[in-house]
Structures are given as structure tokens and as C-alpha cells.
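One such given next:
>
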Amino acid sequence: MRKLIVSVEMSLDGYIAGPNGEGDWISSGEEIWNHMFNDLADVDTVLLGSNTYSEYASYWRSILTDPDADPNERKYAQWAERTPHILFSKTVQSIDWANSRIARDPHAEVTSLKQQSGKNIVAWGAGEFASALFRMGLVDELRITIAPVLLGGGLPLFQGIDRTKLKAIEVRRLENSAVILRYEMNTGK
């Protein structure tokens, strides 16, 4: 059965965006890209909430035609261009990225996707969308890259989550002092 993996970058003090929504603190570098591409080898579907989708689609499509784009960004943009994306929104009526479609019901959609053949599914971003996936019991694995920065405020990773037990399955320390943590959902059942 396919797994749903929520993957996000977070500050050490638990925020996924700064007080004004900024993400200029997010870690980058060759090592992070290498780990990400390694992880993406087992993924064939991307889930996005409506808050993330518009910037995400616009940015990665622009990288495909930017002759000065970072080679790793271009490689990801090419992967994203050929990988199915599902936007979860109750209000968006249409999207114009050929590899994307809209779904309205995360529980029904993810349950169906998990039963289909294929590789794993990744949900990018966090906040409301990731929290909703957790509350519905749909998440199988959590991957957090902790950036070596304290933001002092901003958008928290999770909202409205009940106490949940997790099982650590991997810890990777990176040269830039970031840490990648992978957890398997373990509700104690």
C-alpha cells in the first residue's frame, strides 16, 4: 500500500513561515537537494493545499524557462512537470498546469490513492492542509527538515492537532547544521 508522507521545512522553534509569511530562512544547498532527490525517487504524486499551490505552480513552471536557474531547481522543476499534482480546494474552479487536477474531499481522495498501485504520495507544505491530513488519520510518515534558525514567531507547523505518538525512523544531520527527521505515525494501536 502506498504511503502518504508530509514533508516540510521548519524553524527550530516550530514555524513553517516567518511572521510575515516569509521563507527566506529555508535551508538550501547541494546536500539538501541530494537528500530530497533521493527521497523523491519513491514518490509519484504530490498533494498541495490551495495556499501553497498557486505560488508553487507558478514558481516551478517559471524555472523551466529560466536559462539562469539553479541546476537543482531545474531538475526539480522537470520532475514536478512530469509528476501528477493534486490541489485540494473547495473554492478553486480550474487550474492550468497540465499535470494537475483539483480534488475536493481529501479523505476520499487520499484513501483511494493509497489503494491504487504506484509509489508513495507526498504532501508539500504544512499549516492548515497538513493539519487537516493529520486530523483525518491519513498521514503515514512525517519528514521535517529543521533549519538552524529561530524565527521567534510565524505560522506554526501544526494547528488543532491532538496528542499523537510518533516513531522515529531516521535522523540525518546535514553539513549546514540542518537536521532531517523522519517519523512513522504510531498512534499506539
Remarks:
- The first strand starts at residue 4 and ends at 11.
- The chain is about 30% helix and 30% strand.
